[in-house]
Structures are given as C-alpha cells and as structure tokens.
Amino acid sequence: MDYHQLAADIKQWGRDLGFQKVGITDVDLSTEQQHLERWLAAGMHGDMEWMARHAELRTRPDQLHPGAVRAISVRMNYLPAEAGFAKTLKNPRLGYISRYALGRDYHKLMRKRLKQLGDKIQAACAELDFRPFVDSAPIMEKPLAIKAGLGWRGKHTLVLDEAHGSWFFLGELLVNLPLPMDSPVAEKCGSCSACMTICPTQAIVEPYVLDARRCISYLTIELKQSIPEEFRPLIGNRIYGCDDCQLICPWNRYAHLTDEADFSPRQHLHAPELLQLWAWDEDTFLRQTEGSPIRRIGHECWQRNIAVALGNAPADAAIIDALQQRRDSASAMVQEHIDWALARQQAGLGKVEKQVLRLVRAVEKGMPRDA
Asked: What residues bind [4Fe-4S] cluster 2, as annotated (predicted)?
C-alpha cells in the first residue's frame, strides 16, 4: 500500500466533503497529561466532573479505539455571513447567542461527514479500522489538531490558523493505518494578549490557561446550578456562550465564512428580543431549539440565563412585569435569578424616576433643561 498517496487522497476526499483542512498525526498525547492533571487539580474544570472521571483516558486515544496509530484531524468553518456581532452585543435588549450555535447542531453533520470519509478510505484500503469523533468521547481534539498541523494553541486555548482564524469546528478519525504524519505549525500569538484583556470575567488567568469556572460559556452552558452573583453583571446579554476572545483576535480578520447551509442562523435565534425569548414555555423552547445545540442546556437553564440578561438590560417596567409574571411558576433556581434581576430593574427604574423628577423641578423653577 502506498500510504503517502493514500494520505494525499484522504486530504482531497476530506476537502470534497466540506472540511477546510485535513491533517494526520500519531495518537501520543503523553505530553498533555501533566498539564491536564495540574488544571484538574486546581479545580478549573468546575462542575464538569466528567473531565476528571476520564482524565487518564483523554491522553490515550489508542484506548478509545484499540489498534489506532494515527488520528486524521479535520476542521470545518462555521462563521455565518452577516453574523451580526455588534448589532446584538451593543443592544442590551437583545439576547446574544454564540455564533457556533445559531444553526444546526454541528455534531451530527460532522460525524456523518467523517463516517463518509472513513468509508472512502476503507474502499481504498480494506484493512482500515476507524472510529469517528466529534466532541463525543474523552478525546483531546485540540492537541491532536495542533499536532496534525491544523493550527497552534492561542492564548485563549482555542486552535488558531493564520489563514482562517479560529471560527471552525474540529473532528477526528482514529485509524489503524501507519499514514505519514504532518508537522505542527509555529505559534504566532507573540506578545498579543488581546483575548486575555477583553474577557469580561477574566477567565483566561494566564496565557494558554482558562479557568472554566469564570468563563461565560461554562456559566451559561455547562453549569447547571446558580450562576455566582459576582459574574451576573459581567455576563451582559450573553444568554448562550461567549465569543469575545475570538472577536478581538487579530487573526480572525482572515477568517473564512462557512458555505454550509446548516450553519446559517435560525431567524428566531439571530438577534432575538429578550422578552420574546422569556415568553417561551418549555414546549416552545423544545420546538424552537430542535436540532440545535442549545436544546441540551434545558429550559430551566435557558430561563436562568435570560433572567440574568434581563437584569442587565436598561430599566423597563415591561421587563419588571414579565419577570414578576413568570416568578411563581419558575423553579427555585430560576426564582433566585428572577429576584436578582427584579432588584436590578427596580433600582434602575428608581434612578430614572428620580432623574425625571429632578428635571421637572428644574423646569418648574425656570432653570435650563440641561442643568
């Protein structure tokens, strides 16, 4: 078998299937083990106990798929046209959803394409044994992608490519073929620390180290309990995930838009009014998020997140009324966040009323309106 030719064919087949880049590496991740152990020991994984439960397995892909000697790592762009970052983030009455979650859940789409890639390889090499992964098992996809030359680790811990930025998904095929390997690319973040500075909650505690307990993506997606009060004002109107560290990254000036129709934003999730989302009951939530990664957080956490965003919105009697109407039927956890939001809204409305009263009195006394 000419494995060099087969590797070249695999990369072309991958591009034909919609992957923007395909790389090949071995499955040795032993150098990642110490870093992972330190991170877990510091408790930076928060409530994601499943990361600690399978910690040893994460650095041993060949135990996930016995006989595997190579990982074929792929990436797929997901940034939609007219992503509308500024429009949504700058309007506190709208809900911001991380751009990766605006369309269809990427897991099924990429896994299907990886299975098709595996079938193509198997048709050319009957001895192939493979297993596809898309964030679906304890596998360290970013270290594998970096070893396979798909990019370098940015200071925000995401994989970066100088020609494509970081707006892409990753996936892998573990295979039993001794294919020629690609080389890692040079790290090019240099002295830039923009991602660390912009993070609303300062979750990037040092270059290449993310404290998930402070990360808005963790707080709004992975955390199933109450959001710590210290972080609620910093979350702003981000109701599912956060993209700030990618938005500020200079390399994302070169990011390519996706041409996958499944990743196009759903209209009701693209710059939605917070009060409209707050009105969804559980049946509506399930119907509107069918086939979306958002569904996995559940309606309770969805309400929790929106309550926080409403608490951060400008004072509005309509928001206070909507929060009060939903309070009695909400769970204890959501009630806690509703009460926090109500206190914020009522305090803000009180300030507005005082400002109006001062203005009225000033006008009555014949003073200038801007006094």
From this structure: 199, 215, 242, 245
